[in-house]
Amino acid sequence: MSVISHQTVLFWILDLKGLYPVLDVIKRSRTVVLNGPAGLFEESDYSFGTYEIIKAAAEAEFSVVGGGHTAAVIEKMGYDRKFTHISTGGGACIEFLTGKKLPAIAALEKSAERFT
Description:
The protein is mostly helical. 47% of the residues lie in helices and 11% in strands.
C-alpha cells in the first residue's frame, strides 16, 4: 500500500472520470480534512460528487470537516457521528489546523495571563 502524504486535491465540479481518482485517494488515506463541498451540491445534478466524497471520508481513521455547508450536508446524510470533528467555521478550522493563531484564542490566552 502506498502512502500519499500531504496531497491536496482541488476541484470545482468533478465529473465521474475525475471523481473516481479522488475517491481512491480518500479511501486510502488514514487522515482526511474536508473544507467545503465538491461543487454545487445544492443542485441535484451536481451533488453526487459531494455525497460520494463524504461517504469515503467518513471511513477514514481521523477525519475533520471545516465549513457550515459541508457540515449541513453531512448532518442531512446522517453521517455526523462518523467524523472525528466537524467545525462550522471552514476558514478558521483550516487556519487552526495549519498552526495559525486565531484572534479569539489569542484573546483568551491573553486574558488568562492577565487574570490568573
